[in-house]
Amino acid sequence: MKVIGLDVGSKTIGVAISDALGWTAQGLTTIYWDENEFSSADKELQTIIEDSEVSRVVVGLPKNMNGSIGERGEASERYAAYLEEKYNLPVVLWDERLTTMAAERVLLEADMSRKKRKKVIDKMAATMILQGYLDSKGGVI
């Protein structure tokens, strides 16, 4: 069974998926959605969850640098609760501090244009969130 990683933003959700053994995360797609209507991402997520036989969801939790949870973190917590109920899967919130900045740095080092970075940054951040989770589990998901 695979694990899906989500970088939840106000307009997009970056999606990454693990391999079947839980060792590596790979960027999959970016879903465009309306965060005021959680169900706006359901169709695409449902397809990914079913096709990939997902057994767990990891949602990035954007904490402030001091560890507190602000408005974006609370939004991620609400969405995680929605996902858990909607798909009847365990959902893990994973500290995502600095993942978007790290993803941006990787893409800059790859000399990717700003336009191309904008298209893949969320997927890259989701990959980093999921890989951090997988690494903490040592391949035991």
From TrEMBL:
<keyword id="KW-0378">Hydrolase</keyword>
<dbReference type="InterPro" id="IPR037027">
    <property type="entry name" value="YqgF/RNaseH-like_dom_sf"/>
</dbReference>
<dbReference type="GO" id="GO:0016788">
    <property type="term" value="F:hydrolase activity, acting on ester bonds"/>
</dbReference>
<comment type="similarity">
    <text>Belongs to the YqgF HJR family.</text>
</comment>
<comment type="function">
    <text>Could be a nuclease involved in processing of the 5'-end of pre-16S rRNA.</text>
</comment>
<dbReference type="InterPro" id="IPR006641">
    <property type="entry name" value="YqgF/RNaseH-like_dom"/>
</dbReference>
<dbReference type="Pfam" id="PF03652">
    <property type="entry name" value="RuvX"/>
</dbReference>
<protein>
    <recommendedName>
        <fullName>Putative pre-16S rRNA nuclease</fullName>
        <ecNumber>3.1.-.-</ecNumber>
    </recommendedName>
</protein>
<dbReference type="GO" id="GO:0000967">
    <property type="term" value="P:rRNA 5'-end processing"/>
</dbReference>
<keyword id="KW-0690">Ribosome biogenesis</keyword>
<dbReference type="GO" id="GO:0004518">
    <property type="term" value="F:nuclease activity"/>
</dbReference>
<keyword id="KW-0963">Cytoplasm</keyword>
<dbReference type="InterPro" id="IPR005227">
    <property type="entry name" value="YqgF"/>
</dbReference>
<dbReference type="GO" id="GO:0005829">
    <property type="term" value="C:cytosol"/>
</dbReference>
<keyword id="KW-0540">Nuclease</keyword>
<dbReference type="InterPro" id="IPR012337">
    <property type="entry name" value="RNaseH-like_sf"/>
</dbReference>
<feature type="domain" description="YqgF/RNase H-like">
    <location>
        <begin position="1"/>
        <end position="103"/>
    </location>
</feature>
